[in-house]
Amino acid sequence: MSAPHPKAPAAPAAPAAPAANFLRGIIERDLAAGTLQGRRWGGSPGDAAHHAAGVPDPARIRTRFPPEPNGYLHVGHAKSICLNFGLARDFGGVCHLRYDDTNPEKEEQEYVDAIAEAVRWLGFDWTAGGTPHLYYASDYFDFMYRAAEALVQDGLAYVDEQSADAMRANRGDFTRPGVDSPYRGRTPAENLARLREMRDGLHADGSMVLRARIDMASPNINLRDPTLYRIKRATHHNTGDRWCIYPMYTFAHPIEDALEGITHSICTLEFEDQRPFYDWLLENLARLGLLAHPLPKQYEFGRLNLSYVVTSKRKLRALVEEGIVDGWDDPRMPTVFGLRRRGYTPAAIRAMADGTGASKTNIWLDFSVLEQCLRNDLEGQAPRAMAVLDPVPLVLENWAEVYGSAAHVEACSAPAHPQRPELGTRHFGLGHTVWIERDDFAEVPPKGFFRLFPGNRVRLKYGLVVECTGCDKDAAGTVTAVRARVVPDTRSGTPGADAVKVKGTITWVGQADGVAAPVVLYDRLFSEPQPDADGRDFREVVNPGSKVVVQAWLEPSLAGMAAESRFQFERHGYFVADREAHRPGAPLFNRIATLKDGRAPG
Length: 602
Ligand code: ATP
Ligand code: MG
Known about the structure:
By secondary structure, the protein is an alpha/beta fold. The protein has 14 helices and 31 strands. Helix 3 (about 75-90) packs across helix 12 and helix 12 crosses helix 13. The longest helix has 16 residues, at about 75-90. The model is unreliable at about 1-15 and about 595-600 (pLDDT under 50).
């Protein structure tokens, strides 16, 4: 089944609006109708008897986030985490973190650890009432095998020895019904013996499989005797070499949900056609006494796609392995760790996820929505600071005249946050020479330019008013210094400072106490909103300007900050002290996002 895949990203959704979420309606109805009542919880995952011996389930609902530990989580997974943990939190339930580690070949401990860390960083916890609900699907292999034998004995599963090619051909397609396997008519006793031989390692990899016996003519191809178990000699990270047969995902997943007492099993749309098998399997296992009613129900919602990134694990891996980015946590990567290193806050990611709700269509979210969520989160809390990213010196020619010495430094200060006095005051010095942005000066001002040009007056923010007198240039005509004169008695915060009116205010960093630091100006990784649309190779549209390192000057308060501290650099945007490379004394900042409206006109 293929989910809708619109060509163009939709207009940015408004994250602040209460988002439609049909899952909430389903849960509210289930709780009101009492369909979830009578569930028992045995204190840990288990079969019908285990839960029957337990207590009425203290969790009003149970959801789960079931990643396969075969890679790093990305923004789509973050969406699923926020949805599942958020629903459990909002309805008095519990959300399990379950490693879906039934495939022996691809899983690694590195990913297991990274997934738990990402979920925790996003602000969620799988511990409820003192019980950590962290589970491994591979712990259920014994039960899964028992379920397989029960189905065989009930005549609902058989061992098929057709070749893979024959099986594929005999499955039919949308226009042709399938053809019964010649092995379909074996007796339960024959099948049970064969299944045990499979388990005991008497048959070669790929020589036979266990299949459900449902309906080879079903219009839903997933019900044409789906495979339940395959033979695969592979060492599993949890069970080692104990098994040489492994369950298929479609067989394992419903069972995992049922053993854990999941009430609402939420997955993405591509599993819609699997739902009839999900129900078929669980209902039969309940009828055979292995599982208890009420059974989990599967609900599908649309995937979240973010513009200007790719989220397929294969493509993310290619970006890392081909050196297009600097690693899984490169600040341009849409991985949870990439977003964290870029400076995105957990609250911003949760707001983005909550703001997109849950619907029955896959959605394309414009990257700008995530940026806006970040601004909304940081605007009210990030301390302000001044930084000059493209520096040119501004020489104040009459400094010594006005202050008696060229070495004099005026102490200036500013609130760390304009609306939050409790965040304190920043201090910095203004002297004979300061750093200003190169584009705050124009020898010949374009129309509407209110910043520095010969004869014009501007305020150095939190400092004083200066009047531009000209500039110095090198042989190539590049401006090497801007010149100005201090206008006396205009110090910010002193009486009469506002007597001299100016149209422009510019930010600056003093040469006396400014701190030199690299600042990395990150931008979108791709230059196209859908990098891999229409079969295009995403490598062709990597944005060459997605990482630009500039040598900046920072106000002195920034040097001593801890890694991961976030600031608004006035007029520039939001920046974070890099969590790996920043050191107090050797700062390194990343740009998270520009300010909403770009640079304010000066
Ligand atoms: P991918 O192939 O993109 O890496 P996956 O679905 O194979 O993703 P899993 O580890 O199986 O990765 O996913 C764990 C959970 O996250 C699943 O429930 C899956 O449906 C959900 N999920 C993955 N990608 C998205 C997405 N883009 N939007 C919403 N949920 C997602
Ligand atoms: Mg998957």
